[in-house]
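User: Predict the complex with NAP.
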Amino acid sequence: MKAVVVEQYASIDQIALKDVPSPRIGPGQLRVRVEAAGIGFVDGLKMEGRYQTKDPLPFIPGTEFAGIVDEAPGAPGGYQPGMRVMGMTRSGALAEEIVVTPEALYPLPDGVAAEVAASFRANYLTALYALSARASLGAGEQLLVLGAAGGTGIAAVQIGRQLGARVIAAASTPDKRAFARQHGADAVVDYTQTNWRDTLKELTEGHGADVIFDPVGGEISVQAFRSIAWRGRHLVVGFAAGAIPALPFNLPLLKGGALLGVDLAQLPIREPEVQKRLMSELTAWLVDGQLKPVVGRIFALDDFREAFRTMQTRGALGKMVVRISK
Ligand SMILES: NC(=O)c1ccc[n+]([C@@H]2O[C@H](COP(=O)([O-])OP(=O)(O)OC[C@H]3O[C@@H](n4cnc5c(N)ncnc54)[C@H](OP(=O)(O)O)[C@@H]3O)[C@@H](O)[C@H]2O)c1
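Assistant: Here is the predicted structure with NAP placed in the model:
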């Protein structure tokens, strides 16, 4: 089968598509023919060996996928060949086939395209977990989304609207701000401007943001926290800008505010019931059309490098997806 193979931790330009043997299927496992894989920020870090955990070499990157069950001896988890699934795994999704345990899978509802499913689960579950289970975002509250045109950002814009909040999208370019508006943001702010906090103050009529969804990090995070409303909640989602900010402790005191961590990787282990509930909520919205997840750009498998480069050069609108098989 064809697969993207990381033989040495390296930049995307040095990573190649190879012909490798199909993965062997073990007891309790099943084989999925991958139709599409989503490219996540973490995948880029893992390839370069810059993520907090290192995958042993060689490895096939890719943590999120959608496809069709191809082989399921003993029907683990009730899965049968021919069933459509979406999955999340530690690695291996950028390949024509993947072998997983049933816990990695979730049935894919009819009518949902593989490209949508491959870009849906991680970002939308992160957004819903953060906004609902962590921040208890209420209808009518003001939500500020940083990096709002990125993969998790645009999911937070849509989920914020779905939960009834007023969404203010912060992004660096006119195209990104237009994209956020197109997907439901009520207002936008250019957070590369030095006076962006004044604009935010005007947009919230002096109230500040009740909830801040922050996948960006760096100095912007501390600036954003300074604009939080009384009893506001700042969600620590990621550090796309690279630097991990440090918050002076007097700020939460003065603002009556809270800093809340969000880690999707720990959700199935620490709060499996919450994950189950949130996934059913998301799939119900997906099936009845209340939620139309954004697919950024779709690339052919041969062009996987371009998908990574687009994301890594801050050029992506939404999540990048690689189409693997029809
Ligand atoms: N906690 C969790 O469970 C969880 C789950 C998923 C992802 N994450 C993390 O969240 C972060 C964002 O992921 P994502 O998928 O949303 O990424 P993404 O699609 O690349 O979006 C990140 C956004 O950050 C902004 N940004 C600011 N400085 C940047 C820089 N130097 N390079 C790249 N982007 C920069 C960009 O918006 P502007 O150009 O508008 O500034 C960009 O749209 C990553 O650190 C990822 O690991 C965490």
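The mean pLDDT is 96.
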